[in-house]
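Structure first, sequence second, as always.
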């Protein structure tokens, strides 16, 4: 992350932030200096998180009572929190780990190797990692082993009915070797071996669930002594346990969500069929009746009025044709198949273009990131939410401009819809809508809730109105789902 020339290239022996010859920093200075260092190199979007880590570290310092001891431990606390934040933002690099290690060594008067282990175990076991998508959390934990020079590469394997499945590898390009797979298989059976591979020693550690090996980390150790590597791997296995457990729970709840979304979609599909078989057929019959009536009435209309009468009938027929078109469009939009079979960007652009044409409201749609890697439930939810928001804008807002932004980040999908219309009093409107059995916004909220996301409506009389949806970006580790 930080390209600072004062950072030593190797694992230096002293905290690199102090200039040579300066007396040891006073306790509160150490924390402040460490903070200033990381703050300077951090991207602007990460600064609030670092400030927050500093605040927490200061609170921790007070908790220890003793200023010296408190400062030492608060520095460890702060350094670990920063490493986790940088990793979460994909901004962590090896020099950050080295700087943090040197800072911990200085603050706690520890040899570098001890400081490294202390920092590693704090970061790997940080509860904050459980807020990350499990794959990102595991990648951070494994990557740290490499940054600490314990492993040259590492892969994470999970037990499946078909044998070990590699769900993550760091430090190597390409798929893991057959030797690694064999090692993973042996470790999942409870056997550990020591084998040599490509100038390093292949080591493994199992992650247990209910006393049984459930996943395994395999990696090549470099120069680290065997007992040190064992200690790190042991810490890693303990820290991976909750991450993989969370993955397991998410997977289970995802299949439940899938069922819920599927049943909601089935209801919509039935509604589409009902529309087709009921109102659309009625409109067609009505149009035929009107046409017949036109013919039957025609002979009885006096010559001078015939043109006018015909015009009125044609008008009525044209309105019925338009009603038929709208109903068919509605029935079609309730179909899920088309949402899933085409790229999301294309579907959204089509929906938005059709809306802009029909309503004369200037509408812009921006899509950032890999929108097509969304799960099918997420795609449906994003599509339906935008559909409903646009319907509301057309019906209630009087807006002249709408801006829709979809951003697929690694940890979350964000959708924002802003209109410059009249706005509304959110609580009152929702209560009234509920009384009248109106389900648009409630439906969005329900869909988002099913996927573990958040939905916020920000509006007031006079406008503008903004809807913000965030869906956690969880993808199963397994390719088996
Ligand atoms: N963009 C908007 N601008 C102004 N008012 C809005 C907007 N979106 C929603 N509202 C208000 O919120 C109310 C609730 O919206 P909701 O979508 O839940 O129900 P509805 O649109 O009235 O009915 P339904 O969606 O079931 O056809 C609306 O009746 C309207 O008063
Ligand atoms: Mg509505």
């Amino acid at each position: 992350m930080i390209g600072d020339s004062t950072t030593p290239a190797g694992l230096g022996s002293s905290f690199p932030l102090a200039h040579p010859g300066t007396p040891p920093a006073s306790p509160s200075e150490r924390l402040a200096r460490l903070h200033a260092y990381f703050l300077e190199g951090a991207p602007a979007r990460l600064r609030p998180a670092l400030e927050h880590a500093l605040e927490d570290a200061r609170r921790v310092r007070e908790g220890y009572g003793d200023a010296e001891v408190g400062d030492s431990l608060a520095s460890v606390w702060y350094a670990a929190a920063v490493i986790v934040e940088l990793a979460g933002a994909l901004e962590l690099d090896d020099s950050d780990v080295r700087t943090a290690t040197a800072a911990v060594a200085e603050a706690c008067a520890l040899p570098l190797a001890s400081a490294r282990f202390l920092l590693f175990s704090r970061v790997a076991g940080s509860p904050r990692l459980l807020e990350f998508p499990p794959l990102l959390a595991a990648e951070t934990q494994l990557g740290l082993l490499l940054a600490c020079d314990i492993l040259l590469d590492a892969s994470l394997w999970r037990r499946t009915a078909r044998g070990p499945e590699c769900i993550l590898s760091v430090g190597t390009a390409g798929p893991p070797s057959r030797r690694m797979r064999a090692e993973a298989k042996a470790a999942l059976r409870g056997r550990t071996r020591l084998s040599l591979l490509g100038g390093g020693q292949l080591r493994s550690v199992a992650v247990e669930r209910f006393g049984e090996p459930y996943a395994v980390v395999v990696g090549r150790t470099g120069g680290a002594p065997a007992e040190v590597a064992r200690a790190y791997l042991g810490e890693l296995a303990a820290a991976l346990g909750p991450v993989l457990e969370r993955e397991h729970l998410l997977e289970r709840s995802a299949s439940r969500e899938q069922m819920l979304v599927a049943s909601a979609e089935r209801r919509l599909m039935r509604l589409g069929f009902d529309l087709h078989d009921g109102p659309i057929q009625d409109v067609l019959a009505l149009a035929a009746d009107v046409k017949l009536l036109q013919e039957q009435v025609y002979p009885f209309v006096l010559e001078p009025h015939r043109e006018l009468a015909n015009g009125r009938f044609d008008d009525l027929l044209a309105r019925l044709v338009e009603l038929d078109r709208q109903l068919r469009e509605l029935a079609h939009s309730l179909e899920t198949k088309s949402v899933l079979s085409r790229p999301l960007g294309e579907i959204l652009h089509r929906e938005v273009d059709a809306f802009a044409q029909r309503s004369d409201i200037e509408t812009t749609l921006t899509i950032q990131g890999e929108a097509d890697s969304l799960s099918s439930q997420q795609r449906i939810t994003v599509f339906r939410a935008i559909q409903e928001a646009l319907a509301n804008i057309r019906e209630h807002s009087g807006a002249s401009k709408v801006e829709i932004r979809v951003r697929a980040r690694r940890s979350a999908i964000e959708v924002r819809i802003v209109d410059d219309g009249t706005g509304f009093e959110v609580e009152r409107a929702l209560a009234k809508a509920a009384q009248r059995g109106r389900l648009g916004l409630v439906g969005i909220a329900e869909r988002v809730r099913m996927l573990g996301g958040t939905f916020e409506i920000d509006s007031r009389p006079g406008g503008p109105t903004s809807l913000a949806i965030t869906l956690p970006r969880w993808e199963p580790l397994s390719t088996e789902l």
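Margin note: Residues 392-393, 395-397, 419, 421-424, 429, 433, 438-442, 465 surround adenosine-5'-triphosphate (ligand 1) (CB under 6 Å).
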